[in-house]
Design goal:
seven-stranded mixed β-sheet, globular
Length: about 500
């Protein structure tokens, strides 16, 4: 069994033979132990590898085939990623029947238990179609860390909307410093997030101080904090790169303790984060602002982060905003905004004709002057190969992101099958990301709209270049009138989306 090793990664090439399963488990266990896992966590990782490898051997290869597959173990910020990659016959593990304990009690041959155990044992399980490169199952496990409730008493974590009179905002301006986060201050960030949102915030890393420290150590997060001259913690804001190779970062995790909400910390933290030297290039920054209230929308507008889309119903209605009155009667929608740090180089954009005018408007609004073109003869035709579609599902948000990295000739049919599978899993909202720099997007957009997708906005400088965002809502009740919108452009975007949303007229 060949193995290629580097400081934080090993790769094994394994025969498609079940007798090698103990070897796979033993090797992965040893790597996981080196990363820092122990006890029950190692058992969970071994169990997940057993199920994932068994699925590949049993379903991806014919018994007569002498094929191999790869297992890649990689240390990632916060833990371990295991990727099982193969080029066997087409098979979608996500299409396995859902685990039903009642059915299993009556019929021992009932399926779905393996996938259920995998998802229960690991923090993230995802399946990726890589086109001619085959398919990949990814398992992610985070290292254990104490969350905020293990550091403080319930009295110390009293929500902001139960603040004492002494915690009300100070009217008089005070002198304070804005600087990079120090490791010992991460606990205050988690505490502030908890007191603002309870445990409803979309990214639970924020509740684990050790994870905040590691994300800053790796450069995936750049945290700025405000601290008074008496060394009292005021608040936190950060730039977060969404993927290891991303050229854009999200301005997010903005939390301010109530008594310091009138001191201008968020603007100062924003200016600090933009100006400071960075380990990674920054082609742009973006922000998602909730539509339950206009506070965050007003904030990013003051920073010159301009609206370029609205994503509907992306999060549950259970999100909390301590001390801020907001509507929680429907799933939460967000305004997407973007800013270039510098004037971008002109690109050739293949905007679908039905949306070209709006896309041009959005680019002008965010400060880009791109060339708009129609594909030449044969340019828009997808290649006669399988599409490359990557899907990421956030079960707690009941939301999925689908990225098309390459169009195949059967892309609409492949997307239809994927949508059906996600809908059967009762995922509420699907966000589709397709490249505006790919000539095929010019014609493919209309095909995807026939499936029920509709315009949502644009996101420049993404993983696949400048991106058009479409959405699909899976029987989600939504009242456009309940969305609280701040800027004129956001009102224009919302009206445009409503006019193209096939669900709006239902």
């Amino acid at each position: 069994m060949p193995a290629n090793a580097s400081a934080d990664c090993i790769k094994m090439t394994v025969p498609g033979d079940m007798s090698y399963l103990p070897v796979c488990q033993s090797c992965v266990r040893a790597f996981a132990k080196k990363v820092g896992f122990d006890g029950r966590e190692l058992s969970d990782i071994e169990l997940s590898v057993e199920e994932a490898v068994s699925n590949v051997i049993e379903h991806a290869f014919d018994p007569q085939e002498a094929e191999t597959f790869d297992i890649i173990c990689r240390r990632i910020p916060l833990g371990l990623m295991i990727a099982i990659k193969e080029k066997g016959i087409p098979f979608d593990p996500a299409a396995l029947p859902q685990y039903d304990p009642a059915a299993l009690a009556q019929d021992e041959s009932a399926t779905g238990l393996g996938l259920f155990l995998m998802k229960k044992a690991m923090d993230e399980v995802s399946f990726h179609n890589l086109g001619p490169e085959g398919k990949e199952t990814r398992l992610i496990k985070y290292l254990g860390a104490k969350n905020i409730q293990q550091y403080f008493s319930p009295e110390e974590l009293k929500p902001h909307d139960e603040a004492t009179p002494q915690q009300t905002a100070r009217v008089q301006k005070i002198d304070y410093d804005v600087r990079l986060l120090r490791p010992e201050e991460a606990i205050e960030v988690s505490k502030c997030a908890y007191k603002s949102h309870g445990y409803t915030f979309f990214d639970d890393h924020i509740y684990y101080p050790e994870r905040i420290v590691e994300l800053n150590d790796t450069g995936e997060m750049i945290s700025a904090v405000g601290v008074t001259k008496e060394n009292v913690f005021m608040g936190h804001a950060a730039l977060v790169y969404p993927t290891p190779g991303a050229r854009i970062a999200e301005w997010t995790f903005g939390f301010v303790n109530p008594e310091f909400r009138s001191q201008g910390f968020l603007k100062r933290s924003y200016d600090f984060l933009i100006a400071m030297p960075k380990r990674r290039p920054l082609a742009g920054l973006y922000s998602y602002c909730v539509t339950n209230h206009v506070i965050s929308q007003k904030t990013v507008a003051k920073f010159g982060i301009n609206d370029c889309g609205i994503l509907l119903a992306t999060s549950p209605a259970t999100w909390e905003f301590k001390g801020i009155e907001s509507d929680t009667s429907q799933r939460m929608s967000v305004v997407l905004s973007f800013k270039y740090p510098d004037t971008p180089e002109p690109l050739t954009i293949y905007a679908p004709g039905q949306h070209r005018h709006m896309i041009e408007r959005l680019y002008v609004h965010i400060g880009a002057q791109h060339r708009f073109a129609e594909p030449g003869p044969g340019q828009a035709a997808p290649q006669p190969v399988a599409s490359v579609m990557e899907t990421s599902v956030n079960m707690s948000e009941s939301c999925a992101d689908i990225t098309i990295r390459r169009y195949g000739s059967q892309a609409p049919q492949e997307l239809r099958a994927l949508v059906r599978d996600l809908c059967l899993k009762q995922i509420a909202t699907l966000n589709l990301f397709i490249s505006l720099e790919d000539p095929a997007t010019f014609s493919m957009t209309a095909e995807f709209e026939k499936l029920g997708f509709f315009f949502a906005g644009i996101l420049p400088c993404g993983d696949i270049g400048d991106t058009l965002i479409l959405q699909y809502l899976n029987n989600v009740p939504l009242s456009y009138e309940k969305l609280v919108i701040h800027t004129d452009m956001a009102h224009e975007i919302l009206a445009y989306i409503k006019a193209h949303d096939p669900n709006a007229a239902l």
